[in-house]
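Bench notes, afternoon.
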Amino acid sequence: MSAKDRRKKVIFDHDCSSAATDSPSTDSSSGDLPIILPPAPDTPLSRPMPKRNKGEPSLSELQDNIITARTLKINQRADSLEQMVIINSHTIEDLKTSLNHLYVEIQDLKNDKTKLAEKFSQQQKSLVNLEKRIADAERYKRRWCLRLCGLSEQPNEDVKVKVCEICDVLAPESCQKGFDVIDIARRPGKPQPGRIRDVIILFALRSVPYGGMPKTASS
C-alpha cells in the first residue's frame, strides 16, 4: 500500500472513532443498541491516465498524415495529367481537322496540276504545230522573193529603183512595170566595208518570179 493510501486509511479510522465517541450513550432501560457503522471497503484508488504530450503524435497518426499527404499529391498530379490530356486531345482534334483541310487542298492542287499538265501538253503540241506552220509560211513566202547578187552598193541608194531598171532590162516583154510588181527591195544586214550585200526582192505576185524572170540575176 502506498503512503497516500495509508494516510487516507488513518484519516478514515480517526473519523470512525470520533463518531463512535460523540454518539449519545444508550440507556440500558430503553434497550436500544448503539448504531455501529460498517467499515469502509478497502477499494484501491484508480490511477489517473498519464497525460500525452500534444507535440508528439503517435505512429498511426504519422502514418495517416503521410498517407493523406501522398494521396493529396497524387490526386493533384492526376488532376494535372487529366487537364493535360484534355488539352492535348483538343489540340490533336484541331490538328486532325487542319490536316483534313490540307489533304483536301492538296488533292485539289494535284487535280489542278494534272489539268495544267494536260493543258500544257496541248499547248506544246499547238506551239509545235504553229512553229511548223510559220516555217511553212516563211518557206512559201520565200517563193515570192528573188535574191539579186553582185549589185554594186552605194551610200543612200534607192535599191528599188535599181531593181526596177534591171527587171525592165531583163524582161522587156512583160506588160507589167517593175514598180507595179515589186513590193520590197532591200539589202539584209548591216553594211560592211569591202563586202557587197545581196538584194532581196519581194514581188507582189507569186507568178512574177516564175513567169520568165530569172531567180538569180547579176548586174
